[in-house]
Structures are given as structure tokens and as C-alpha cells.
Design goal:
mainly beta; 5-stranded antiparallel β-sheet; 1 helix; 9 strands; 44% strand
Length: 124
């Protein structure tokens, strides 16, 4: 039987760990493996901090568990609060925390055409 994780408890623990992080962010990988077809990461951001603009290494979604964030692109931004889910656009994007926040990031790795080889490198 696979192990389970209580997401509200894990989110609270990750938020508490922000007190020791000068970067204003912390993360916990839930489904590890560089070549796994699916990667899930809990991501915590302190209010006012952001993830710099980047491109996702595959199709990705974001579910906000705690707080409020903004998913930004050059042309738009999407406000998300606890309980909201959104696909991450396949373009350069960033994430800004308007409150201390925790989100569940899910990334499905891109595969190289014809080989099935996973090319995902890191969670966005």
C-alpha cells in the first residue's frame, strides 16, 4: 500500500520552514525522480516574494492550498487563492505571492518525439 500525505499538515510545515529561508521560498518534492513522467512539488512562498520568470519543462498545473498568488505572463496575470486550480501557460511565466502561500505544482515531463525519453529537468 503506498504511503499517504495529509496536504494541510505538509503545507503548514512548509510555511513554518519559511522562517529559516532567506530566499522567501521552500519546496518539498512529493513524486521524485528525474525521469518520472509526473512530478509533484509543494511550493511555499512568503508574501511579497516571487519565482522569477521561467518556462515549464512540460504541461503543468498549479493548485493553491494556502494564501493568494498571481500567475504572471508578459501579457496577463491570473489571481488564484486557496482552493483554486489552473493550468500553467506554455510560455514564460512567473509566480508572485500576495500572502504567505503554499501551492501544489504538478508537471508532466515532455518526451522526445519517437523515443519516449523524458526531457523534464525541474519543476517550474
Amino acid at each position: 500500500m503506498p504511503s499517504t500525505l495529509h496536504l494541510p499538515t505538509a503545507a503548514a510545515e512548509l510555511l513554518a520552514s519559511l522562517a529559516d529561508e532567506t530566499s522567501g521560498r521552500a519546496a518539498r518534492t512529493l513524486t521524485p525522480g528525474a525521469h518520472a513522467p509526473l512530478k509533484q512539488t509543494l511550493l511555499a512562498l512568503r508574501a511579497g516574494h516571487r519565482l522569477q520568470d521561467h518556462r515549464a519543462p512540460g504541461q503543468a498545473t498549479l493548485e493553491v492550498l494556502v494564501g493568494r498568488v498571481r500567475l504572471t505572463t508578459d501579457a496577463d496575470e491570473l489571481a488564484l487563492s486557496a482552493g483554486h486550480w489552473a493550468p500553467i501557460p506554455d510560455e514564460v511565466h512567473g509566480l508572485v505571492a500576495d500572502e504567505d502561500s503554499v501551492a501544489l505544482l504538478t508537471v508532466a515531463g515532455r518526451t522526445t518525439a519517437g523515443t519516449g525519453a523524458d526531457t523534464a529537468t525541474a519543476a517550474s
